[in-house]
Write a structure and sequence with these properties.
155 residues, alpha/beta, 5 strands, Papain-like_cys_pep_sf
Amino acid sequence: MKMYEMRKGGRCGIGFIDPNTVNEYTWKIDAYHEKHVEDSMLEFLKRLKYNEDILLPYNFQFHWILCIIKVDTGTVELLDSLLKKQSDYTILFGIVNRAWARFISVTPGEWKERLKWFRPKALKQVPGTDLCAYCVCENIRMMTSERNRSQKQEW
């Protein structure tokens, strides 16, 4: 819906990755699906490389987080409402980093050799609640609806 809303409003600059395609559950099914998830991530990067931000809602261990990939700077912001341990993100790091390595090898341009990951301040959920999906949706809403337009966002 946000993609449609942004197009209707004449704004661009934000890409969206399908969380049904890139997620831990699909990756864990078998070796074929591991490759499919990484191939899909590579295709998303190639198709969305000119966007200011690429949003990846990601589900793992029954928990939702939001990754904001900034291709031009080679950074990934990880918005986690529970601040899980870094080791909990191992599969996500692997999927995105391997796809990035393939992306820079097949896509002409001056790309950063490695992605830099960091966790900025983000909405936090109250411990003991299951509001992580709400926090992801609210972060997406704030990024798409409340952001100022830049030249890259105009049609």
